[in-house]
Design goal:
Length: 266
């Protein structure tokens, strides 16, 4: 298989699949609707398929790209460097708070490599209060997990933690033919809008994550077993939660209530 595109060898270790379908790119731009005076950030711009369309609409954009060989190609998109800042960095380690200008929250977009999508989302949640919205191209199955509802087989840690922080909207699906090289899976565009006021607030988000990990770590077990080392059956009942249920039946609010109980009394 020839993995060269626009003179660049796609690198498997970076999870590179370059978007080239003009119609899909236009759909993405319409969904993002970039405007002047917005603090736009693109993760993994690659060869600039999305960047090229965002640039005319904004005053400035930050690009975060790990592959140093792509930097010269990205610089050619906008010879006036005042409009574009390129950060050659690993997004998983990047300090996104450094891009906050004190007034304009971050609008983050990206065609995310499948191998880092989940850890990157959790990294971004560390600065969720600085983010206006996020639009990501992700593996379709990941977006389905993010947007799942309690009782669905896809409901799990990712669903709970993403929905704790954000409103999730699956916008549209993208076939593998829109990329070069074509991945073996289909993709989807998702919009994440951080809650201005969370429906339920965890006193300690780390405790919430601990509870969720424990509950779904043994998802076929009932809560009395999967959470037995953290909370008693009696206390679950006191919280109005049936200890004979499995984790997939609990809502975000249920998990927050357990975490807050443990944080207060554990």
């Amino acid at each position: 298989m020839n993995n060269h595109f626009q003179g660049h060898q796609a690198r498997k270790r970076f999870g590179q699949n370059f978007l080239h379908d003009g119609a899909v790119i236009q759909q993405i731009i319409e969904a993002i609707y970039p405007q002047p005076n917005q603090n736009m950030v693109e993760i993994g711009p690659g060869l600039g398929a999305i960047t090229r369309e965002i640039l005319p609409a904004v005053d400035h954009i930050h690009l975060i790209e790990l592959d140093r060989d792509l930097i010269p190609k990205l610089k050619l998109l906008n010879l006036n460097q005042d409009k574009m800042t390129i950060h050659q960095a690993d997004a998983l380690k990047f300090d996104f708070s450094s891009l906050y200008d004190g007034s304009n929250p971050l609008r983050i977009v990206g065609n995310l490599p499948y191998n880092i999508s989940t850890p990157l989302l959790f990294h971004l949640f560390n600065n969720i209060e600085l983010i206006e919205d996020m639009h990501f191209m992700l593996q379709k199955e990941v977006v389905q997990r993010m947007s799942a509802v309690p009782g669905n087989k896809r409901w799990g840690r990712l669903s709970v933690m993403v929905q704790y922080h954000c409103h999730v909207e699956l916008l549209f699906h993208v076939g593998s033919g829109a990329f070069k090289p074509a991945p073996k899976v289909d993709s989807a565009i998702v919009r994440l809008i951080p809650h201005k006021t969370k429906p339920a607030v965890a006193i300690n988000p780390e405790m919430l994550d601990k509870v969720v990990i424990s509950a779904f770590g043994q998802r076929r077990k009932t809560l009395r077993n999967s959470l037995g080392k953290l909370i008693s059956e009696t206390d679950l009942k006191a919280l109005g939660i049936d200890p004979t249920l499995r984790a997939e039946r609990l809502s975000v609010d249920d998990f927050v209530n357990i975490a807050n109980f443990l944080d207060g009394d554990g």
